[in-house]
Amino acid sequence: MAEERLQKIIAERGVASRRKAEELIARGKVKVNGHVATLGDKADPRRDVILVGGKRLAAAETATYIMLNKPRGYVTTMSDELGRKCVAELVANAGVRVYPVGRLDRDSEGMLILTNDGDFANAVMHPSTHVPKRYRVTVRGKADDAALQAFRDGIALDGRRTLPADISVVSEEPERTVLEIVLYEGRNRQIRRMCEALELPVIRLRRTAIGTVKLGMLPVGKWRYLTPKEVKALVQATGVPQKVAAEYIKRGSVPNDPYSTKR
């Protein structure tokens, strides 16, 4: 195996995203063969001893891709210093350490992807790829034509206008409206903040799809493996060439019964 950049090796082991790995290296938290690493350093994980935060980097694992139907009340982290419930508890029986691809806030629910493949996570999360994410959102009150158009035109948040979003009305009642919203970016609590700006308090927010991959009938709190076809579809949604997308499924781990939810 040829030498690779340290941030790529760390990301592939599922320790952190590539960007976070670069931060760890810059802070002097990574050592190679006893020497503090610097950005740009390379290593051979088969030959070199790599320490991250004083702990030796684990051997390479088969890439694993998981879909979780996140319940409300769980934070999208693998541990929480405040003692809140974490999504890590829901995938503890996966057999490998996986990390969330993107986030859903504590009060939101629905489709969350977890993986130990840093390259995959970086490709799907990167702001430049604009992978569409679909949500079913229930708001208090009526979303009039002006509010719908504001979503389509973009709304100023923190001095910067959001990208145009797709939005449609699913159903209306006197006191609430159910909307389907598709975002092409992923700012912090974006839908809730956009609705707040339009005086439409969010009652429920559930992510139902990322790219062409849908949550489907996966029960709340359960997880399943992504199929090779789904992994490929997610990578292709980032705009990478088909040949590159095919490489991801070659290294992936998918059981014989990928839709089993007996976990």
Structure at a glance:
The chain is an alpha+beta fold and about 260 residues long. The chain has helices spanning about 5-10, 20-25, 120-125, 145-155, 190-195, 230-235, 240-250, and strands at about 5, 30, 35, 40-45, 50, 55, 65-70, 100, 110-115, 135-140, 155, 160, 165-170, 175-185, 200-210, 215, 225, 250-255. The longest helix is centred in the last third of the chain and has 10 residues, at about 230-235.
Description:
The protein has helices at residues 6-12, 18-26, 118-125, 145-153, 190-197, 228-237, 242-250, and strands at residues 4-5, 30-32, 35-36, 42-43, 50-52, 55-56, 63-70, 99-101, 109-115, 133-140, 156-157, 160-161, 166-172, 176-183, 202-210, 213-214, 223-225, 252-253. Strand 11 (156-157) and strand 12 (160-161) form a beta hairpin. The strands form 4 sheets. Strands 7, 8, 9, 10, 13, 14, 15, 16, 17 and 18 form a 10-stranded mixed sheet that branches. The protein is built from 7 helices and 18 strands. The two termini are 36 Å apart. The radius of gyration is 20 Å and the shape is elongated. It is of the alpha+beta class and 263 residues long. Helix 6 (228-237) runs antiparallel to helix 7.
- Uncertain stretches: 256-260
Report the sheet-strand fraction.
25-35%
Shape: elongated
Distance between the ends: 36 Å
Number of helical elements: 7
Number of strands: 18
Task: Give the key terms.
263 residues; alpha+beta; ten-stranded mixed sheet; four-stranded antiparallel sheet; 18 strands; elongated
Produce the secondary structure layout:
Blueprint: E1 4-5, H1 6-12, H2 18-26, E2 30-32, E3 35-36, E4 42-43, E5 50-52, E6 55-56, E7 63-70, E8 99-101, E9 109-115, H3 118-125, E10 133-140, H4 145-153, E11 156-157, E12 160-161, E13 166-172, E14 176-183, H5 190-197, E15 202-210, E16 213-214, E17 223-225, H6 228-237, H7 242-250, E18 252-253
Parallel strand pairs: 7-18, 9-15
Antiparallel strand pairs: 1-4, 2-3, 2-5, 5-6, 7-9, 7-17, 8-9, 10-14, 10-15, 11-12, 13-14, 15-16
